[in-house]
Amino acid sequence: MKPHSLRTIRDLCNVHDFTLAKSLGQNFLTDIHIIEKIADALLITEGELVYEIGPGMGALTMALADAGANLKAIEVDRRLIPILEQIFYDYDNVEIIESDVLKFQFPDEDYKLIGNLPYYITTPIIMDALERPRPPKSMVFMMQKEVADRILSPPGSKVYGALSVMVQYRCDVDHVTDVSPDVFFPKPKVSSSVLRFNPRPESEVITKHRALFSKVVHAAFAQRRKTVANSLKTLQMSDGTLSSEQIRTALHAAGIDPIRRAETMSVEEFSALTDAFFEIS
Ligand code: SAM
Questions:
Q1: Which pairs with CB-CB distance under 8 Å and at least 24 residues apart come from 103-106?
Q2: Number of domains, the chain
């Protein structure tokens, strides 16, 4: 069976009386070259533990299984479970798991993560993976191109924001490929991109105060048009908000001019600022 073929998808829909759920981001891939490119980007070794988010009708799942992964595919739509179980009946290396990925307990062991993501929860999926005590060794995700552009953008760019900083702080990110809407069934309205995320070892992450870093970044970007000194007035420390004097002291210690805007600050500067806030807290 070729789960990426339009004909197979239509047949499976008919036989199982299945209608695609737009609300779950069900746009299935139909181009084997793109599917193989995505699977290859994860650099799977034989028997390696891989989790796939949202297998749908199994197009990417089959490429990953054929590449030798010990594959666990997490699908929230219970109507797809019997279809997937039927497709992968003969595969010893594929386990289908019915779960919402945002509620799933990932194991405390090495694994890789991949998915043609449901676009309505792209950011929570990425942030959740990065904030785990043990992040995946490597991740390959397809997402809306506009979100990929934000993740990759440097300081000073119009689309540089909290997501860019939070991801670049934890990972090296490579652009794998752009994907046209034409290779999906049904066609989405937007273009997509595939990115590979390589989380850095804990020892190479700049500030160690991860929770505080996240608060500082989100407060700094909450009002993009304000100066960083003003935006940080909403920063909630464990004992409440900070005085203007405390904010100026921390910015000074981190070598950051208080009249700058968050969108001009590098990941290193956010890290230095986090450390300065930690010192005064
Ligand atoms: N991997 C398939 C492909 O490339 O053809 C399907 C990708 S489709 C864009 C996204 C898939 O994620 C759908 O099968 C959808 O049901 C599933 N999904 C949506 N929300 C989910 C969630 N919270 N947890 C797990 N899977 C989810």
A1: 104/74, 106/51, 106/132, 106/136
A2: 2
pLDDT mean over 106-122:
96
Beta strands at 49-53 and 28-29: parallel, antiparallel or unpaired: unpaired
Which residue type, as a one-letter code, is found at position 108? D
DSSP helix/strand/coil, 140: strand
Range of the domain at 97: 6-203
Residue ending a domain, among 203, 224, 252, is 203
Domain contains 1: no
Cα–Cα dist 109/116, whole Å: 23
Residue 101 in contact with ligand 1 by CB distance below 6 A: yes
From CA 37, how far away is CA 116, in angstroms rounded? 12
**Residue 102 CA: which ligand 1 atom is closest?**
23
Please indicate, yes or no, whether residues 198 and 135 belong to a single structural domain of this protein: yes
Spatial separation of the C-alpha atoms in residues 19 and 10, rounded to whole Å: 10
Ligand 1 atom closest to the Cα of residue 28 is 5
**73 and 149 together in one domain:** yes
- Could you give the CA distance from residue 44 to residue 236 in angstroms, rounded to a whole number? 42
Nearest to 263 by CA among 234, 209, 222: 222
Taking alpha carbons only, the member of 198, 137, 202 closest to residue 173 is 198
| pLDDT one-digit tens code per residue, 3-61 | 889 999 999 999 999 999 999 999 999 999 999 999 999 999 999 999 999 999 999 99
Task: Name the residue at shortest CA distance from atom 20 of ligand 1.
Answer: 24
Exposure class string for 147-162: b at 16+ Cβ within 10 A, else e: bbbbbbbebeeeebbb
The pTM assigned to this predicted structure is 0.94
Residues 101, 232 within the same domain? no
